[in-house]
Amino acid sequence: MYKVLENGGQLTQKDLIRETSLPSRTVRYALNRLKEEQFLIERHYFIDARQSLYGLIQPSKEVVTV
């Protein structure tokens, strides 16, 4: 889920279900866990007020070791 959000930007729950092919319950669980760990930000989706947009607070940066 994290990688999908990292590559896809801000997505709705429906978009995440479609992108990952996971059941809705699994996606909701993953979103809740990411929010608890403060990796996720939830915003209002103005196009459809019944949904929210989910995105990462700060996308991870790869660390290169020499």
UniProtKB/TrEMBL annotation:
<dbReference type="InterPro" id="IPR036390">
    <property type="entry name" value="WH_DNA-bd_sf"/>
</dbReference>
<protein>
    <submittedName>
        <fullName>Uncharacterized protein</fullName>
    </submittedName>
</protein>
<dbReference type="Pfam" id="PF13412">
    <property type="entry name" value="HTH_24"/>
</dbReference>
<dbReference type="InterPro" id="IPR036388">
    <property type="entry name" value="WH-like_DNA-bd_sf"/>
</dbReference>
